Amino acid sequence: MTQNAMRYAPCVKGRTMWHIVSIIFGAMVGSFLNVCIFRLPNKESIIWPGSHCPHCKTPIKFYDNIPLISYLVLRGKCRQCHGSISLQYPLVEGITALSSLLLIMRFGLSLSYLIYFAFVAALIVITVIDLYHQIIPDVISLPGIGVGLLASLIISQITFSNSLLGILVGGGSLFLIATVYQWLFKREGMGGGDVKLLAMIGAFLGWKAVILTIFLGSLIGSITGIILMVSKGKDFKYAIPFGPFLSLGAVIALFYQNEIIFWYLRHGR
Questions:
Q1: Could you tell me which of 12, 54, 160, 269 has the fewest CB atoms within 10 Å of its CB?
Q2: pLDDT tens, 8-17?
Q3: What is the separation of C-alpha 247 from the centre of its chain, rounded to a whole number of angstroms?
C-alpha cells in the first residue's frame, strides 16, 4: 500500500462510520416522527405517555421499539394483541434514515447537516399528516419559519436577507394565488397551511428555491392529480393535498437547486 493510500484509508473508514451513525440516528428520529404524526392531529402530547399499541394501548417495551428491526421481527403486529401495525411506521423510519444519510453525504458532519435534517424531518411529518388529514399543523410550520430565519445567521448556505425574502416570496406568492383562485372559482383551492408551509420553506432555502419548489410541486402534483382523477373517475374538483408536493419540491430544491437553475439557464432559453 502506498503512503497516499495509507493516509486515505482512515478517511474512508471515518466517513463510513459517520454514514452508519447517520442512518441509525435517522431511523431513531423517524420513530419519534411517527409519534408526532399520530398525536399532533389529535392535539395529544408527543412526550407523554410513552409509545403504546394503537389498538390495545399496551406500552411498548424498548426491545419492541427498535426502528425498522422490531417491525420485521414482530411481522408488523403487536406482541400483545396481535393487532396489525401500519406499514407507515417502517416507511417513515426508513425514509428518515435515508434522508439523514444523504444529508450527511451532502453537508458532512456539520451544523448545516443538523439544521437541514431538522427541516426535512419537519417536511416528512407535514407530508404524512397532510395525506391523512389534509391539514398542515401550525405547530410545525410557524416555529419552522423562525427557526429557518435564525439558521440563516449561523450557516453559510443562505444569508439572512435571502431567508427573509424567501419568507415573503413564499408566503406572499401562495397567498396571492389562493386568493385569486378563490375569487375566480368561488371555492378554496388551497388552505392557509400551504401558505405557511411555503413561507417555512423560503426561510430555510431562500427565494429562488421557493420559485423552484412551486414549479416542481405544481408539476408533480398536476401529474399525480391527473393520474388519480383518471383512475378514480373524478372530475377536476377532486381535492388532493398540496403540502406533500411542496415538501417533495423543497427536498429536490435543497439537493439540486443550483444544478437545476444552471441547466435551465443553459438550455431553457
A1: 269
A2: 455 567 788 9
A3: 6
Q: How many angstroms separate the CA atoms of 56 and 83, rounded?
A: 8
CA nearest 37: which of 123, 142, 146? 123
| Cβ atoms of 23 and 101 closer than 8 Å | yes
Residue where one domain finishes, among candidates 48, 75, 108: 108
Length of the chain: 269
Comparing C-alpha atoms, which of 189, 180, 187 is closest to residue 242?
Answer: 189
Among residues 49, 75, 108, the one where a domain terminates is 108
Amino acid at 191: G
pTM score, two decimals? 0.89
Cell numbers 466517513 correspond to 15
**How many structural domains is the chain composed of?**
2
Residues 120, 11: Cα–Cα separation, whole Å: 27
Euclidean distance between CA atoms 102 and 243, whole angstroms = 22
Cell of 110: 456539520
